[in-house]
Amino acid sequence: MNNASKLLAAAGVLCLAAPALAQETLYVSSEGAKLKADKSASSDTVAELPVGTALSVQGQEESWYKVSAGGKSGWIYRGKVAATPPEASKQGGDNLFGGAGSSSIMVSEADSARSMRGLNASEQDAAKAAGRPPRPLSEYKQALDKVLAEKVDRKELENFLKAGRIGEYAK
Questions:
Q1: Using an 8 Å Cβ cutoff, are 161 and 169 in contact?
Q2: How far apart are CA 25 and CA 68, in angstroms?
Q3: Environment class of residue 120 by beta-carbon count within 10 Å: exposed (0-12), middle (13-18) or buried (19+)?
Q4: What is residue 2's predicted lDDT score, i.e. its pLDDT?
Q5: Within 13 A of 66's CA, how many CA atoms are on the CB side?
Q6: How far apart are CA 9 and CA 15, in angstroms?
Q7: 72 partner at 20 to 30 Å CA-CA among 22, 112, 138, 156?
Q8: Can you give the pLDDT at residue 64?
Q9: Is 65 exposed, middle or buried (CB count within 10 Å of its CB: 0-12, 13-18, 19+)?
């Protein structure tokens, strides 16, 4: 096979692969996700997209995906999408953690999470060894539920992200 034939064969493979790449589907995973006219948080908003919206990916540049949904196309920040549709129980809600609801964390699920201090048996043992009375696990669960119930409106969250140049506002 000569070089011209090899190039022609490679081009054919790429032509067949291109539609597969263009057909990738992502799903909106964050409340308040916006389809933007350009790959910039400050560009015009084409549409607000509800959690769970299927997006047909047309391309990607830096931290932005070029997508289409519902007859509209534009750009969406990568932090607002996921490869799989969100569970119905995770959609909606206006609490701080986007519909997470109350905690259903089991003691065994928090063993490696230092941020969940107190929710595992080793923390209880450490408290006893240090001469501190261990708190009942129910107190930790109640405290976690209180944090999960915190509400932040979208504008307040957006202002925080802008001020800190976080996520889609990083540039």
A1: yes
A2: 10
A3: buried
A4: 61
A5: 8
A6: 10
A7: 156
A8: 94
A9: buried
Any idea what DSSP says for residue 35? E
pLDDT at residue 142 in the model = 85
List, run by run, the mean pLDDT of 10-residue segments along the chain (171 residues): 54 46 79 92 93 94 93 94 79 49 45 51 77 80 83 87 89 74
Q: Are 21 and 77 in contact (CB under 8 A)?
A: no
Amino acid at 82: A
Residue 73 burial (CB < 10 Å; 0-12/13-18/19+)?
A: middle
At 145 the pLDDT is 84
What is the token pair recorded at 75?
């750009």
> What's the pLDDT at 60?
93
Whole-model pTM above 0.70? no
Residue found by looking up tokens 């539609």 in the block: 19
> In whole angstroms, what is the distance from residue 105 CA to residue 31 CA?
23
How far is residue 167 CA from its own chain's centroid? 11
- Beta-carbon contacts of 121 under 8 Å, excluding residues fewer than 6 positions away, are 107
Count the residues in the chain: 171
